[in-house]
């Protein structure tokens, strides 16, 4: 029998965790023929709740789920891990300054990065979901010098899927007709969803919509969708975030011709090397590659530069705080 893949999920007792774990256990993360063992990492106060979720996972009798552990010790959780989904993070509370937020998350993602460095399997792949995702991924990566840098990624797939959905609704086409969608930059309100490379039925999407809609409706709707969900649901996106995490890892492992993911920059498209920034990416042989050779016009350039500038500011801030 195939050796199970160990998948570690942090923040397992949270909302995204609850929407994510059952799908992983059912085979949707890696493939319907890949057995998994789950490791659920939580803070001590939430271990009991995570154990409750583990009981429910047991009660599903998933054929592919070969084991579950629940722990509050990162060294245990990441021991032998092949995939790590870093979901648990410190949310911004009212009146919290950015520096405090980065500091609090540095206290989570630094030690988790070190625990991954010291304990994970050689093929470890890390997806950071917890916000600020790009910079949390950078912090974890910087504490894991023995892990290849490109194994640390952050999630912009939810933004990508939101962009597909908004464009499909506007053009009244199925989402499957849209190709080459791209989210650039930071998973934040500065992100840039790009319709100048997206194609619908072989035509450039930006040419199928008017510029006012693109600029004043599409871009802000995608960028602020998280806030709109909170407003409507009274809670932040959970099932859609879990779905995007599944999409990201599935494509990373199984390959894709084009999607969006935040991965360490190699300097492509003027994004400073080392920033974990969203790009148009393909995945081949289990590795992300930045899609090269796209022409970037002035409209896109300005927006890519703005979101990348924000990532640089976050990197400077965590450097100044001594977090990396
Ligand atoms: P939640 O508050 O329901 O759950 C977070 C869980 O993380 C809690 O159970 C908490 O105990 C746990 N946790 C906190 N510190 C931890 C640590 N050091 N180790 C292990 N577990 C820890 O939050 P929810 O809704 O599940 O969201 C999780 C994160 O995902 C948030 O940071 C949120 O902003 C982010 N997010 C990111 C998205 C993206 O597109 N990148 C989309 C939606 C949410």
UniProtKB/TrEMBL annotation:
Keyword NAD listed: yes
Pfam families assigned to the protein according to its UniProt record, in alphabetical order: Ldh_1_C (PF02866), Ldh_1_N (PF00056)
Binding, substrate: 92, 98, 131, 162
CDD domains found in the cross-reference section: MDH_chloroplast-like (cd01338)
Function field: Catalyzes the reversible oxidation of malate to oxaloacetate.
Identification of the protein by name: Malate dehydrogenase
Keywords for the protein's UniProt record, in alphabetical order: NAD, Oxidoreductase, Tricarboxylic acid cycle
SUPFAM superfamilies cross-referenced by the UniProt entry: LDH C-terminal domain-like, NAD(P)-binding Rossmann-fold domains
EC numbers, comma separated: 1.1.1.37
Family according to the record: Belongs to the LDH/MDH superfamily. MDH type 2 family.
Active-site residue list: 187 (proton acceptor)
Catalysed reactions, as listed in the record: (S)-malate + NAD(+) = oxaloacetate + NADH + H(+)
Limits of the Lactate/malate dehydrogenase C-terminal domain: 156-316
Binding-site list for NAD(+): 11-17, 105, 112, 129-131
Organism: Streptosporangium oxazolinicum
Uppermost EC category: oxidoreductase
Chain ranges of the Lactate/malate dehydrogenase N-terminal domain: 5-147
InterPro entries listed in its UniProt record: L-lactate/malate_DH, Lactate/malate_DH_C, Lactate/malate_DH_N, Lactate_DH/Glyco_Ohase_4_C, Malate_DH_AS, Malate_DH_type2, NAD(P)-bd_dom_sf
Gene3D superfamilies in UniProt: Lactate dehydrogenase/glycoside hydrolase, family 4, C-terminal (3.90.110.10), NAD(P)-binding Rossmann-like Domain (3.40.50.720)
């Amino acid at each position: 029998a195939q050796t199970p893949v160990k998948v570690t999920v942090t923040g397992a007792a949270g909302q995204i965790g609850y929407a994510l774990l059952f799908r992983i256990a059912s085979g949707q993360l890696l493939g319907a023929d890949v057995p998994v063992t789950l490791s659920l990492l939580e803070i001590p106060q939430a271990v009991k709740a995570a154990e409750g979720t583990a009981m429910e996972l047991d009660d599903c009798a998933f054929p592919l789920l070969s084991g579950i552990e629940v722990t509050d010790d990162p060294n245990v959780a990441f021991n032998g891990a092949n995939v790590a989904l870093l979901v648990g993070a410190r949310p911004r509370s009212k009146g919290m300054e950015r520096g405090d937020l980065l500091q609090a998350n540095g206290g989570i993602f630094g030690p988790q990065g070190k625990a991954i460095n010291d304990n994970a399997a050689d093929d470890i792949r890390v997806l950071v979901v917890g916000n600020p995702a790009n910079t949390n991924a950078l912090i974890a990566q910087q504490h894991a010098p023995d892990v290849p840098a490109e194994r640390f990624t952050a999630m912009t797939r939810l933004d990508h899927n939101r962009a597909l959905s908004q464009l499909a609704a506007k053009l009244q086409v199925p989402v499957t007709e849209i190709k080459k969608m791209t989210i650039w930059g930071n998973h934040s309100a500065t992100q840039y969803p790009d319709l100048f490379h997206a194609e619908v039925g072989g035509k450039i999407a930006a040419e199928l919509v008017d510029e006012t809609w693109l600029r004043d409706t599409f871009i802000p709707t995608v960028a602020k969708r998280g806030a709109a969900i909170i407003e409507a649901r009274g809670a932040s996106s959970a099932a859609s975030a879990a779905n995007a995490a599944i999409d990201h890892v599935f494509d990373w492992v199984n390959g894709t011709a084009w999607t969006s993911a935040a991965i360490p920059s190699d300097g492509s498209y003027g994004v400073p090397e080392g920033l974990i920034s969203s790009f148009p990416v393909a995945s081949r042989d289990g590795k992300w590659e930045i899609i090269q050779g796209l022409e970037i016009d002035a409209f896109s350039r300005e927006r890519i530069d703005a979101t990348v500038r924000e990532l640089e500011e976050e990197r400077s801030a965590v450097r100044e705080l001594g977090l990396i």
